[in-house]
Amino acid sequence: MREMWEKCSSSGKVQVFQCRRWLAAFFLSHKTLFVVIWSLVFFYLLRWRTSCVVDSGLSVPRPGLSNSSDSFSSRLPQVTIDSTPPPVVVNSSDLSIPPPSQARSGPVLRPVVFNLCDFDAVGNGRTLNTKAFERAVAAIAELGERGGGQLDVPAGVWLTAPFNLTSHMTLFLAEGAVILAVEDERYWPLLPPLPSYGYGREHKGPRYGSLIHGQNLNDVIITGHNGTINGQGQTWWTKFQQRLLNHTRGPLLQLMWSKDVVISNITLQDSPFWTLHPYDCKNVTISNVTILAPISGAPNTDGIDPDSCENVVIENCYICTGDDGIAIKSGWDQYGVAYGRPSTNILIRNVVVRSVVSAGVSIGSEMSGGVSNVTVNNLYVWESRRGIRIKTAAGRGGYIRNISYRNVFLNKVTTGIVVRTDYNEHPDRFFNPNAIPALENIHFSGIQGKDVHLPVGIYGSQDIPLKNVTFREVSIGLSNKKKNAFQCSFIEGHVEGNAFSPPCKDLDHFNVRRRRGRRVRRAKRIEPPKKTKTL
C-alpha cells in the first residue's frame, strides 16, 4: 500500500495512469468488498437499535451513573423482577377501581401497580388517608389470582388510621414517603387477646390493633427506597406512664398466621408498643430494616419480636429502641403451653443494636411454647444494658435449646451475657408452678468486647439448671477490675480455648487441644443481682 501511494504521488502522466490502476485494483479486491459490506451492515444495525430505544421512552444510562432500581432489586430476597413485564389490561368498571397508575416510584414487583394518589390520597400530613389505603388494598385483593398488585406510596406524609393488608401484595414506600399513624386511640380498633397470652400484655381484655395489620395472609412484601412508617408513639408512651389507657398498646406492624413474608429496605419509627411483631408466621425475611425509638421514655418498644414463628431470617438491620432490640417469644405460661407453637429455625445475622435500658438480643421471658434452633451471627451491641439475655421462670414450661451465638462484639455494655431463671411475671394466679422450662445446648463462640462491667452472669437454679453450655474463645475487656467477672450457678458445660477470666467452678475448662484443666463438682452459689423487669 505504501509503494502504491508513493507511485501515485509522483509526477507525470504515466504515474497518474498507474495510480488509477492501483486504486481500481484495491477497491475491486474481494477482501475490500467484504470489509465495506460489513461496515455498512454494522452501521445500519446500530442506528436501528438506537432509534428503537428512543422511541420506547427508555433512557440510555450515562457513564458514572448507577441504576438505583437495579441495585435495589438485587438486594431483595426471593423476589424476581422482570424488567419488561407483560402489559396487563385492567377493566376498571369491573373492579370499580382506577386503572393502574402510569407514574412509577419504584421497581415493578407485581403485574399491576397502583399509586396511592390514584385513590385520592393527599400527602400533606394533615388529611386522613385511611379510606385511600383501604380502597387500594381492596383493589389488590381482587387481583390475587393474577399475581396480586403493588401499591406505591410516593414521597409525602400520609396520615392514616390502622389498615389491613391482603395476600399477594407489595407495599412499596418511595424515598421521602412517610406513613404516619393517627395519634387518637379512638381510631385504633380493639382486637381479642393473643391466644397464646390469654390477656392483653398490659391489661386484661382486648388489645389495640397495629397500625399496619394482616391475618392469614400469603405472599406479602413490604419494602421501598427506605421510606418510613411512623407510629407517633410519644402520645401512647405518655398515656401509658400516666395510666390513662384501658387496653394494651398496639404494635406498629403485626402480621398473624401468615407465610412467605418479606420486609426490607424501610424505616420503622416510634412504635406505640412492640415495633415489628410477626405472630405464628412461617418463612419470614426481615432485611435492611432500620428501627428507631428514643433510648429512654419509650417503654416496651422492642425492635423485632418473632413470636411462635418458624423459618425466620433477620439480617442487615440497625435497631435503636427503648427496650430489647430483638426478643424471641412463644407464649405466656399456661396459655402458651396450651397453644403449643414454638419459635424455631431463626437466623439473626449482621445486626447492630443499641438498647440502653434492655438487651441486644433476648429470648423470653414469654417462651412457653418453646424456642429452638436459633443462630445469632455477627452481632454488634453498643451502649446497652445487656448484650445477650435469656429469661424464664418456673411456671413458663416449654424449653430453650439448640441456641448458638457466634462472632458477637460488645461495646460499653453493663452485662454482656445474662441468663435468669427467676423472671416471675405471670398473667394470672392460675399458672402451674410445676411447669419447669428446660434450658440446654446453648453455645457461645467468638465473644469479644470492651468496657463491659460484668461479662457473664448465668444464674440457673436447683429446679431450672442449665445443661451443656459451652464457651469458646471469649475475650471481653472489663470496664473495671472485678474479681468474679465470670459468674454462674447451677450450670453444666465447659470452656474451650482462651477465656478473659477464670470460668466459674461448675464448668470444665479445656485448653485449645481439649485437655481438661480442672473440675469442681459443686460451685458456690452466686446470688444474682436485683433484676429490673421489662416486657
Mean pLDDT value: 82
Q: Spans of 5+ residues with little confidence (pLDDT < 50)?
A: 1-17, 48-96, 511-526
Alpha carbon gyration radius: 32 Å
Q: Give the overall form.
A: globular
Instruction: Describe the sheet with the most strands.
Output: 22 strands, parallel
Percent helix among the residues? 10-25%
Total number of strands: 28
Question: Structural class given helices, strands, pairing?
Answer: alpha/beta
Protein name: Polygalacturonase
GO molecular function, one term: polygalacturonase activity
Family: Belongs to the glycosyl hydrolase 28 family.
Transmembrane segments: 21-46
Plain-language structure description:
Helices cover 16% and strands 38% of the residues. It is of the alpha/beta class and 535 residues long. The strands form 3 sheets. It has a 22-stranded parallel β-sheet that branches. Strands 5-10-13-15 form a 4-stranded parallel β-sheet. Helix 1 runs antiparallel to helix 2. The radius of gyration is 32 Å and the shape is globular.
